[in-house]
Amino acid sequence: MRLGVGLACTPDRRRSHEYLVRAAYSSSASKKVKAMAHGLLIAWFLDACEKDGTIRSRYLLAASHHCNEAAKLCREVSPKGACASPAVLFFMKNVFEKFSPTVVELNYWYKDAIKALDERNKQISKGQAKMAQKRLKNPHRYRCAAPGCKVQSDTGKMLSQCSGACDRDKKPAYCSKECQKADWKNHKPFCRPGAECSVIDDGFFDVVGTAPSSESANGALQIPVEFADGKKVLFSSSTMDPQMLKEIRELASKRNYGDGPVLDTIQHVEFSEVD
Ligand SMILES: [Zn+2]
Ligand SMILES: [Zn+2]
């Protein structure tokens, strides 16, 4: 396959493209390797997007094709119920869905990729329903009790609870030692058996339903972020610590949603909208 010579197409990029295409269609490579190569090719084409977020239609089609191939291969090699690779899901959610209403061919040519996204969406709503139940039952378990912190977790494992004498069902949970320290003055008089719960409920869980990032993983921390233009988003990460998430919140609050630079700095962070 020969690439038209674009201005942004350096020899290095051309070489990596050639290498990936060869891997993706190699007859000797395993399906896993091929799926990976297709996934990297999606990224390759996304890198070729214009600065304003537009993408040449042949790039869009090529990326969609690689996404479809990756989804197909993933399904063949993954255990049942596993979801498609992050590259596939990222592309489907952030690019494919944006263009599929206008580039109608997309809806007919790339059925495997569409199916992968559908499956993921179903999983998410199932996870959300389950999580909402759990949170309703014991909301304190899933949100940092320090005033103003608002870090929450999709599983109880990410936060640590007060180890004092307070009742189990009323124990506050914290994202960090700092937060526990900050809340101690408030919690101290309540940290005894039979005392009222010291956690102030600001209703956050009423408006947010999020899925566990993955059933097998340890879970993710999340933080609600409000952009300068009022757009509210929930950032979620299984690798960042609470402090990093708070820094992102700080950063985002000074910019408008959709301003490239914010999203660029946290590209690897999954996010879902809070309505
Ligand atoms: Zn906290
Ligand atoms: Zn306590």
TrEMBL record:
Keyword Metal-binding carried by entry: yes
Annotated InterPro entries: Znf_MYND
Domain MYND-type, chain residue ranges per copy: 144-191
SUPFAM superfamilies listed in its UniProt record: HIT/MYND zinc finger-like (SSF144232)
Record's keyword annotation contains Zinc: yes
PROSITE patterns: ZF_MYND_2 (PS50865)
Cited Gene3D superfamilies: 6.10.140.2220
Coiled coil regions, renumbered to chain: none
Entry-linked Pfam families: zf-MYND
Name by which UniProt lists this protein: MYND-type domain-containing protein
